[in-house]
Amino acid sequence: MSRGYDEITSFLGEWGPFQRAIFFLLSSSIIPNGFNGLSVVFLADTPSHWCHIPTNANISDQWRNVSIPLEEVNGELQYSKCRRYSLGVIRNLSAMNYLPGVDVNVTEIKQERCLDGWEYSQETYISTIVTQWDLVCSNDLKIPLTSSVFYLGVLCGSFISGQLSDRYGRKVVLFGTMAVQTCFSVIQVFAPNWGAFCVLFFIVGMGQISNYVAAFVLGTEILGKSARVLYSTLGVCLFFAIGYMLLPLFAFCIRDWRMLQLALSVPGFLYIPLWWFIPESPRWLLSQGRVEEAEEILQEAARKNGIAAPTRIFEPGEVSDWASKRKQSHSILDLLRTKNICTMTIMFFAVWMTVSVGYFALSLNTPNLHGDPYLNCFFSAATEVPAYVVAWLLLRWFPRRYSMSATLFLGGVLLFFIHLVPPSLTMVSTALEMVGKFGITAAFSIVYVYTAEVYPTVVRNMAVGTCSMGSRLGSIISPYFIYLGTYDKYLPYFLMGSLTILSGVLILLIPESFRVPMPETIDEMQIIKGLKPKMSSYNLQSPAAVFKETEAML
After folding, report:
1. 512, exposed or middle or buried, with CB in 10 Å at 0-12, 13-18, 19+?
2. Within 10 Å of residue 224's Cβ, how many Cβ atoms?
3. In degrees, to the nearest 5, what angle opens at C-alpha 199 toward C-alphas 193 and 205?
4. What are the two backbone dihedrals, phi and then psi, of residue 409, each rounded to the nearest 5 degrees?
5. Where are the beta strands (DSSP E) in 37-124?
6. DSSP 99
7. Would you state the torsion angle of the CA atoms of residues 490, 508, 403, 27, taken in this order, to the nearest 10 degrees?
8. Which residues are within 8 A (CB) of 328 and not within 5 positions of it... i.e. 6 or more apart?
9. Do 186 and 265 meet the contact criterion of CB atoms below 8 Å apart?
10. Under a CB-based contact definition with an 8 Å cutoff, are residues 85 and 70 in contact?
11. Count of beta carbons in the 10 Å neighbourhood of residue 445
12. For 34, which of 7, 206, 310, 467 is 20 to 30 Å away at the CA?
């Protein structure tokens, strides 16, 4: 009987200097993803604006002061952002020395669009892409579209990252996609127009997700069992949160969007030296038949850990056995083969999408909250740290179904009831939104493991990839949930809260996987509540075997 990879490499130990270096170096490579992935929060924020009145308009100061009409927005009177009183009419009235409000009822003057452009407040920002290319009024739909283009790039990148990684190696793809993300982020600084900015943003999105996936896979393949679980559940997520928390610090210090974009891009070049410290995945090298290179890496790891490695690590027949086991004979159609697995796939897809909408919409919404946008963004990022820790504890000690449902209900109920908070209690609304995001972020962490445990081995990777497509689609549409706030500021919360609560109910119908043997075949899957069980022969793994496979997967 051939030995498994983890058994063969057990001589390295679990947490030596080599493993610690890989853990922190790969985790640190995720930091730029944290601030680049959500940089649009500040790059595309819309400051206060109003119609520009040319200095050579030949109108008196009295008429200039009343040239912008007042509008009621969410119960408050504000200067119109997209209309002004007809400048031709005002010019004539001013020339005849009529006084506004005395000789003329200003509200009866006809209005017109901002024909001479806009003026923007520089109280918070010197410039954003909104002020650069006037993405307001009739062009305001381009703001959520900018974010959607980035997440569309993430969607496309998730399609190709796996194939590139399997074909060219984890390390090459990791550093190659980091280079794509960094270089195209720098090129964005010189974008001449909004269209060019979006094309470059799409490519940055492709590089970002490919870099993230490559780092995740490389870490899980190099590290041992215990370190692998910690890396996949806390290491990657916490370092992403660190990058996210650094974003408002950069934005606070740099108020011009081009300089901010450059500052967020430059740190990517600091990772170039890591090429000489992070090795290729020995598992991938073995899958390519490059046994000698894999052994050299493991010999070097043993030297760093102060351990004497065997002269020959892999036996000739073991590599061919692993290669034969990697062959797959299943397709995505197997996820629709039976009523049970088809229903489960649709339910998980919907849950993934809902959780993603909540997470990204709340992350993008921080500039719209009451108070300082930089502090709001920092608090939004900081809530992710305890959320990841709580999710890790729930995964270790509590059932998946109830943990997921509880975190979804927490997030959904708080978001749903924000509209009941009196307008004067803005801090309460902000606090509720932050705690709501805490719940949704924790659910986001749990759903990865839950999905992987429910599906059988023969389609597990395919199922997780398919269900995560719901997450990508959710991120693409999430900016438009925030855009609905221009019509009613409570509408996004009502929709997100309702959908999240619905997902919390839906998840209760999915079978429990905590301390339950994972199925090997589709027939061995547990039945969704309410569906009639299908008679079949079950051959479930022993608990010991399942525990071994779960750790190997992580």
Report:
1. middle
2. 17
3. 130
4. -65, -40
5. 49-51, 70-73, 76-79, 83-85, 111-113, 118-120
6. P
7. -80
8. 458
9. yes
10. no
11. 24
12. 467
If you count them, how many residues does the chain have? 554
Q: Which of 181, 373, 342, 354 is nearest to 261 (CA)?
A: 181
Q: What are 127's strand-pairing partners?
A: 256
* Residue 38: φ, ψ to 5°: -120, 20
User: By percentage, how much of the chain surpasses pLDDT 70?
Assistant: 87
Instruction: Tell me which amino acid residue 400 is.
Output: R
Closest C-alpha to 349, from 506, 520, 456, 457? 506
CA–CA separation, 452 and 437 (whole Å): 23
Rounded Cα–Cα distance for residues 550 and 554 (Å)? 6
Measured CA to CA in angstroms, residue 98 lies from 25, 65, 86, 397, 400 at distances of: 72, 14, 15, 77, 73
pLDDT in tens, 315-367: 666 665 555 555 545 666 777 777 877 888 888 899 999 999 999 999 998 88
CA separation, residue 315 to residues 1, 9, 172, 326, 512 (Å)? 12, 12, 27, 18, 40
Q: For residue range 207-266, list pLDDT tens digits in order.
A: 887 788 788 778 877 887 777 767 877 888 889 899 999 999 999 999 999 999 999 999
**In the block, residue with structure tokens 């109830």:** 402
pTM over 0.90: no
* Sign of the alpha-carbon torsion through 145, 481, 476, 334: negative
**Residue 109 structure tokens:** 């003057």
Distance CA 211, CA 271 (A): 12
For the chain, how long is the longest CA-to-CA vector?
101
Instruction: List the alpha helices (DSSP H) in 266-399.
Output: 282-287, 291-304, 316-325, 339-364, 373-382, 384-397
**Residue 120 identity (one-letter amino acid):** Y
Question: Using CA atoms, how far apart are residues 106 and 2, in angstroms rounded to an integer?
Answer: 88
Which residues, other chains included, contact 510 with Cβ-Cβ below 8 Å and sequence gap of 6+?
A: 344, 347, 348, 401, 450, 454, 528, 529
Residue 539: what pLDDT?
A: 41
Contact criterion met (CB below 8 Å) for 35 and 239: no
Q: How many CA atoms lie within 13 A of 146 on its CB side?
A: 28
The two tokens of residue 32 are: 């730029």
In the numeric block, the tokens 């509880």 are attached to 406
Dist. CA 355–CA 411, nearest whole Å? 10
Report how far apart, in Å, the C-alpha atoms of 38 and of each of 161, 243, 377, 530 are. 20, 10, 10, 41
In 3D, which of 446, 447, 497 has the Cα closest to residue 468? 447
278 vs 26: CA distance, rounded Å: 8
What is the separation of C-alpha 178 from the centre of its chain, rounded to a whole number of angstroms?
17
**H or E segment to which residue 20 belongs:** helix 17-28
Whole-angstrom distance, CA of residue 9 vs CA of residue 11? 5
Q: Beta-carbon neighbour count of residue 103 at 10 Å?
A: 10
Tell me the β-bridge partners of 111: 85
